[in-house]
Write a structure and sequence with these properties.
It comes from Escherichia coli. This is Maltose operon protein MalM. The protein has one helix at 2-30. The chain is 94% helix and 0% strand. The protein contains 1 helix and no strands. The radius of gyration is 14 Å and the shape is rod-shaped.
C-alpha cells in the first residue's frame, strides 16, 4: 500500500510538472 501511495503521488507531481509549461504557454498566448 505504501509503495502504491508513493507511486500515485509521484504520478500526480509528474503530471503537475508536465502541465506547468503548458499553462504558462497558454498564459503567454492569452496576453
Amino acid at each position: 500500500m505504501k509503495m502504491n501511495k508513493s507511486l500515485i503521488v509521484l504520478c500526480l507531481s509528474a503530471g503537475l510538472l508536465a502541465s506547468a509549461p503548458g499553462i504558462s504557454l497558454a498564459d503567454v498566448n492569452y496576453v
